[in-house]
Design brief:
Layout (H helix, E strand, L loop, with lengths): L8 H18 L2 H8 L4 H29 L4 H7 L3 H11 L4 H8 L3 H9 L7 H11 L3 H14 L6 H13 L13 H19 L5 E3 L2 E3 L5 H20 L12 H6 L6 H11 L3 E4 L10 E6 L2 E6 L6 H17 L9 E3 L8 H14 L2 H6 L8 H11 L3 H12 L15 H4 L7
Parallel strand pairs: 1-6, 3-5
Antiparallel strand pairs: 1-2, 4-5, 4-6
Helix pairs in contact: 1-3, 6-7, 9-11, 11-12, 15-16, 15-19, 18-19
Length: 433
């Protein structure tokens, strides 16, 4: 239940049940301890804070739903924003109609209304949308403009240079399979790309604000980023459809196991498989020229998705970026992941949420208390660093990379950060999928 609003009794009941479990977890050290056993204090504290924030968010969602049922739907309407599908459901609630009652008045089966509302009217035909909107008194023309306009207009307002850049990348990386538009005329190729991006926007929306490192700014018309996210999303959909993916937000017992996979040459591939077994989909998709994104985290139908560009093919960068995005998944599952995080790890100054993900990644890989007491912090000897990494059970490149960053000297240990050791495990085998 990753939605930003609660719109029916089943969702409200599910939310209350989760709140009960979270409250029980927060009030009992005995219940909390097995989940965080062995993790550094900084990670434990961050997780506890995330659980509290999740509980508060769910409680506010339930309250908004309950007050709407009582006749005050201002908060619910605010949370729905300009989403036309959500607007229809809010309108139903505001008029005091159950799904069954609305279905009866429209001459439909209750299950049909349930299906419409389950995907926020994303699959409804234009004719049926108009009919229900009119019945509920919703200004559907304005809503449809908001709904369809962004999707179809985005690719017609960008520069030809950007379109060619995306098409070149798409062809080189097998986005279109047997339908590759390389053989098409320029105008047909443009239309193909437009549909590719627009279909994604129509299904998942184009948030007006996407977080990118320090800056929370408008990227709803950034074709490169939207096209890349559309590609990652399509690949994630295929993975989700092929596996019984089940994410459990309160299970973080696998974090140390994930970090220790870095010791293996094929650690990145093993990490992808472990994450999938825990309900998190990892997709490696090269960045489009001009993008400045290392990693992204967002959610599809309740399933967290991590996208990595691997623009720096080094072991140290891969593991920090991966754990940073895992941090977003664990710490911000219901407090930001639905909008999405798009991260450039070169950003020097970060906001509070990005700082939380940074500290999470750093401490899962190298606990702060161990780092402060380690001679590896000040050594010039590779052997000392390698010994410390072995004690932690992580790849030495991760420690070498941290030393470079902390000392601001990327010449030192430059041959020890695992160059060229990641992409071959995650990208080359994925082309054409």
């Amino acid at each position: 239940m990753e939605h930003s609003v609660i719109l029916n009794e089943r969702e409200a009941r599910d939310a209350r049940a989760i709140v009960f479990e979270l409250d029980k977890l927060l009030s009992s050290e005995r219940a909390f301890e097995p989940i965080v056993a062995g993790l550094p204090p900084e990670v434990v504290n961050g997780f506890r804070k995330a659980v509290r924030a999740e509980k508060q968010e769910l409680e506010s969602l339930v309250t908004a739903y309950e007050t709407a049922k009582a006749g005050d739907f201002g908060d619910l309407k605010r949370r729905a924003g300009n989403d036309p599908g959500l607007t229809l459901v809010v309108a139903r609630i505001a008029r005091g109609l159950t799904q069954k009652e609305l279905a009866r008045k429209l001459g439909l089966k209750e299950q049909q209304i349930q299906r419409y509302e389950a995907d926020r009217y994303g699959s409804i035909s234009l004719t049926n949308f108009r009919r229900i909107a009119r019945f509920l008194g919703v200004d559907w023309e304005m809503s449809l403009s908001d709904w369809f306009g962004g999707g179809w207009n985005i690719a017609s307002e960008v520069s030809a240079v950007e379109v060619r850049k995306v098409l070149k990348h798409a062809r080189a990386n097998g986005w279109f399979g047997d339908d590759d538009p390389a053989v098409l005329a320029d105008e047909e190729s443009f239309n193909y790309l437009q549909r590719y991006v627009s279909d994604h926007i129509l299904k998942y929306g184009s948030p007006s604000l996407l977080r990118t490192g320090l800056n929370v700014q408008g990227h709803s018309e950034d074709l490169l980023l939207l096209a890349w996210k559309a590609r990652v999303t399509r690949r994630a959909e295929q993975i989700i459809a092929a596996h019984a993916v089940n994410y459990r937000p309160l299970d973080i017992t696998w974090l140390l196991e994930l970090a220790r996979l870095s010791q293996h040459d094929d650690g990145p591939a093993r990490a992808r498989d472990l994450l999938l077994s825990k309900g998190v989909v990892l997709v490696a998709e090269p960045q489009i020229s001009g993008m400045k994104v290392d990693g992204a985290a967002f959610v599809l139908e309740g399933v967290p998705v991590i996208g990595l560009t691997l623009r720096r093919d080094t072991v140290d960068n891969f593991w920090f970026t991966l754990l940073h995005e895992v941090g977003h998944v664990i710490l911000h599952y219901r407090t930001g992941l639905s909008t999405g995080f798009f991260d450039d790890t070169d950003t020097a100054d970060v906001d509070e949420i990005e700082q939380e993900a940074n500290e999470f990644a750093s401490n899962v890989l190298i606990p702060e208390e161990r780092w402060k007491r380690s001679p590896a912090r000040i050594t010039k000897s590779p052997a000392v660093v390698e010994k410390f990494a072995k004690e932690l059970g992580i790849h030495p490149a991760i420690v070498f990379g941290r030393i470079q960053k902390e000392r601001g000297n990327y010449a030192i240990f430059s041959n020890s950060i695992g160059r060229g050791a990641v992409r071959k495990h995650l990208i080359e085998s994925s082309k054409g999928t």
